[in-house]
Automatic annotation (TrEMBL):
It comes from Coprobacter tertius. CDD domains: PRTases_typeI (cd06223). Keywords: Glycosyltransferase, Transferase. It holds the Pfam family UPRTase. This is Uracil phosphoribosyltransferase. It is an enzyme of class 2 (transferase).
Length: 217
């Protein structure tokens, strides 16, 4: 399985990640959402290099130009809530893509133990298409796997791209175990070493959904 970790390359994307993480900047919700979005934009550009292309004739006012454009049918799927701004970044570039939305939430039995529930899915058919599942946080990997399984009820994708911003090492191992090795690519801006007792990523950034949209009851 190909894993692309952007933190291994020096680029401006690292500053967007730093602003998401930093306690001095992350409470500016507008900036937080926009940073999720612009990481989505940069990632989608890099991911676009892995799609299939063929030459097309384009008529300009003065002649004909041959341009290689992608032939892939894309489905951009995201996991509510924190996935929404990150998803928008992908959609800014892949503006012709179809879209899917899945809800996943942690239902806590007590302070430390939770189950993940999927209650909502809105998706097109995904047979033979390139499925890109976006979620900024990959902590245990449980939400990503359940979202993927829910999306499989809509067909069999040709390729799956798992796109995240901060992943724990544990989640990377989990995705390697639970997604098809021969047709999955993982894109992450950073891989962090630990999870705390609440299964939050350490050092991570805190709760991405709350930072983007405010605390929930
Ligand atoms: O890998 P996991 O252990 O499943 O955790 C990651 C999930 O947690 C976050 O969502 P959260 O449940 O906080 O919902 P929210 O986006 O509504 O805040 C995040 O956006 C992922 O969906
Ligand atoms: O670290 C984490 C884990 C789950 N959800 C988040 O938003 N952050
Ligand atoms: Mg949250």
């Amino acid at each position: 399985m190909k894993i692309v970790n952007f933190s291994e390359t020096n680029s401006e994307l690292n500053r967007f990640v730093a602003e998401l993480r930093c306690i001095d900047t992350q409470n500016d919700r507008l900036r937080f959402r926009r940073n999720l979005e612009r990481i989505g934009e940069v990632m989608s550009y890099e991911l676009s290099k892995d799609l299939e292309y063929s030459p097309k004739e384009i008529n300009t006012p003065l002649g004909t130009s041959i341009v290689n454009t992608s032939d892939d049918s894309l489905v951009l799927a995201t996991i509510l809530r924190a996935g929404v701004p990150f998803h928008q970044g992908f959609l800014n570039y892949f503006d012709k893509a179809e879209n899917a939305f899945v809800s996943a939430y942690r239902k806590y039995k007590d302070k430390l133990n939770f189950e993940i529930f999927i209650e909502y899915i809105a998706s097109p058919r995904i047979d033979g298409k390139v499925l890109i599942i976006t979620d900024p946080m990959l902590a245990t990997g449980g939400s990503m796997e359940l979202a993927y399984r829910a999306l499989l009820t809509k067909g069999n994708p040709r390729h799956i791209h798992v796109a995240s911003i901060i992943a724990s090492q544990k989640a990377i191992d989990y995705v390697k175990e639970h997604f098809p090795d021969d047709k999955t690519t993982v894109w992450v801006a950073a891989i962090d070493p630990e999870l705390d007792e609440h299964s939050y990523i350490v050092p991570g950034l805190g709760d991405a959904g709350d930072l983007a949209y405010g605390e929930k009851e």
